[in-house]
Design a protein that fits this description.
The chain is mainly α and 483 residues long. It is built from 22 helices and 5 strands. Strands 2-1-3-5-4 form a 5-stranded mixed β-sheet. Helix 20 links the parallel strand 1 (391-393) and strand 2. Helix 1 (3-27) packs antiparallel against helix 4 (80-106). The N and C termini lie far apart (74 Å). Residues 437-456 have low confidence and may be disordered.
Amino acid sequence: MTGSTLRRAEVGALALLAVGATVGFLLYPISPTFDSQWSMVWAREIWDGASPGFDDYRVPTEHPLWLAISVLLVPLGGEADRVLLALCIGSFLVTVAGLYTLGKECFHPLVGAAAAVLLLTRLDFPYLAARGFLDATYLALLVWVAVLEARLPRRGGVVWWLLAAAGLLRPEAWLLAGLYWLWCSYDESWRNRAVNAVRAGVAPVVWAATDYAVTGDPLYSMNYTTASAEQLGRRSELVDLPGKTLDYLDLLLKWPVLLLALGGVPLALRLPRARPVVPLVLLGTGLLTFFLVSARGFSVIYRYLMPGALAFVLFAAVAVAGWVLLAPGRTRTVWAAGSAVAVAGAVVVAATVASPRYIDVELTVREGVRAQLVELRGSQAVRRGRACGPLTVPNHKLLPELRWLLDADRTEVFARSSLGATAGWDGRGLALVLRGNKRFMRHPAFGPFEADTRIYDDPLIQRPGPGWRPVAQTENFVAYARC
């Protein structure tokens, strides 16, 4: 394949993916996930001249770059959160393109293409992007750092900007920036080392400055995240991390691809013309940062293993298509034939056991949530109820969605599960109650966390008390008013 033909194929494939992503975005008019919704709420508070509520009831940890992007989007009005969601979906496409390019740079275009296909079929990656998790943008930044370094090692420049941006999304990138400083400094002048040290420190300094400006504590995010992980039961003992790592890798990759990846690592080290150093660094740092974050006391969540899983996808592609780097001969022929059989088998298995409908169901549920909340917002009876007092919801899960849709502050919408710490509520206003069984309430769109067992027993949380009357309802919600 000539260079121009390859280029046309790359552009065509990317355009096809962009069209598919756009269609999916339009088919599912959902809102972003919990963390991104709070980022939009905080951004609007900043526009209103108020301090963002980093210490509100059960909010996520703030991420300075995500907050800055949200601030820029607020002037777009009610659709600003959908634009943030579109950014996440676009970031996933950038990640796919970056992984293909990294495979092409370090191995061969066919390896890159295999990696792109494998990534597209690891459904957790596109699903999390479709939900609006900032991890999609973080991965896009990391993979292009790897691409640029593979093309020109120790290039500095734009790599520092990408690492700084990544470090304002996730603190794991601080370690990457420190390692990059070591890599760029071993034969540099002391002046250049000092300049690079400043560049490496941009993200943690900006993060600490943001926390200090809002809360007065430069380490607020670190301390809050650790305390929140403890409260919600998301911490793990170090002895359990190896097992959790394997479980999460299996969740993200599925065991056949994980086995291919484990086999692809030694193959990459032996293939002629292969340059596996940068992918190995991406893999090693991805696993290392997951362990360090867990050791620091942060939540042990499978999303934090995605950088390492992304590198494993590339090594799985080496196991599938690395034969293209061999000279013609028996080994190459046998390897290529074996890969063809394995790919054909994978297609058959996927066609019989894969369940992409799960994603459709998950997104459809979230689409229904927003549609029903918008319907309630337009109800005259709901508006009259809100005029009598604040709107309360069972727990924290619906807070950012409603605060964004209603343009409401923390005194106008709050969770009944927080009433022990909430002053000034006189039992009047509007109460939103969930219809349905516990299985519905356990849906991630609503909560609760497993630690919230009292949500099933406390009448204050489950339903309003005497004197409240139903004024509006949808399939899954009933609004009660008391004036």
